[in-house]
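User: My instructor asked us to take a sequence, write out its structure as tokens, and then describe one feature of it. I'm not sure where to start. Here is the sequence I was given:
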Amino acid sequence: MPGPLTIMLVDDNDSFRKALRRRLERYGHQVVDFASGEEAEQYAGQHLDTIAYVFVDHVLQPGITGKHRWDGIETTKALMQIDPNLCVVVFSGQPDIS
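Assistant: Let's start with the prediction itself. The structure tokens for your sequence are:
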């Protein structure tokens, strides 16, 4: 059985992000979490080699600079440019994400 993993979690909903982080940590994983795609990309530029998986919300509010381009898909694209082999799970609490 593999050891603990380091997981990056990106979600602008603080309460959900904290709850998911606690759950993952209970299973022994290390979690780095961010409220915006911009923050995640900044971290990933230097630390992505330590990340096993990324969980990213499909719908993210504008980040630090207020740019709206940082939804979950754009965040995923930016992270995949850093590491094309990255394992990413995109999730949503929205009933319709089309």
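For the description part of your assignment, you could build on this observation: Residues 5 and 86 are 13 Å apart (CA to CA). Try explaining in your own words what that tells you about the chain.
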